[in-house]
């Protein structure tokens, strides 16, 4: 039994705008957190690293919990509670002055995202599949639009943060909280109320099922190989560039390319590629970026720019495709759990790979980039077959 506050088209718009707003609020605060902790609060470097690591763990690692709750109670409660916790976390962080309150606020901020992000991602995937069944429009087109909206928020959020920082870091936190307050209000008024469903297996049982689902685990490995390479934007790329200002422009270039290119790329790939083929092609492009960076002469912006462009091109193919494949493995009642598990398991792969790859990057030269190129190529080999036929 469902009471619908908006129609299907209105719900899609709400979800796309929500993803944009999530990233506006997030990136208004988080890029400035490390500087605030070290410069304004005087925390030691290891403690700053711990704070940032706990935020990532409390978010990415718990996506699977948020996805399971979405399956059980529907997306609306998960989004509303998650937004309320994010507002509380940002407000707490604005006034925290000691290590323990900062740690608690940051964990709360991360856990909030572990609730609302899987809920929104699950619902947009469900709407994309439903639209594909009704109209024949490939699901990757809507998922690509969703991804582009998130990147637009990631591009605008730091600008909002810089403007708010003129009044201090607390003002940036409160600006971010204000964005999430608007999202909370919008979903309170417009998100459909879905009755709680029964018949879901216990979480431990459901996780056991995922652990035995070979094809889905292969998808997680494939998507995780992309995330490992995307993480090089924060690890290998700074070592390659060396100039913080140039690095900032490269990040802006990546987001700008997605904002401008994601929708046409998704339309093209939907016409000529299946989701599995698009994921493989995206991973090959990411590998090509690593090889080009290794072979191009000299250091500095040119090899780095080539890497960013090819990585972003691969991202525009791989991310919507990976999300489009999840419903094929999830079943009718497990879409939220599988959506969350894709993020959590891929995040574990990034965590495991970070230390050895960091040591490799310290060696410098072409070798690290050639080794990095092997990761998405192996990921492309992991992409599982699906029952759906490729388009046209």
CATH class of the largest domain: Mainly Alpha
Assign the CATH topology of the largest domain.
Growth Hormone, Chain: A
- Outline: globular
CATH superfamily membership of the largest domain, which one?
MFS general substrate transporter like domains
Overall pLDDT score: 85
CATH architecture of the largest domain: Up-down Bundle
Major beta-sheet overview: 2 strands, antiparallel
SS element count, helices? 16
Number of strands: 2
Strand order of the largest sheet: 1-2
Derived structural class: mainly alpha
Query: Total domains, how many?
Result: 2
Membrane topology: Multi-pass membrane protein
GO molecular function: transmembrane transporter activity
Protein name: MFS transporter
Organism: Saccharothrix coeruleofusca
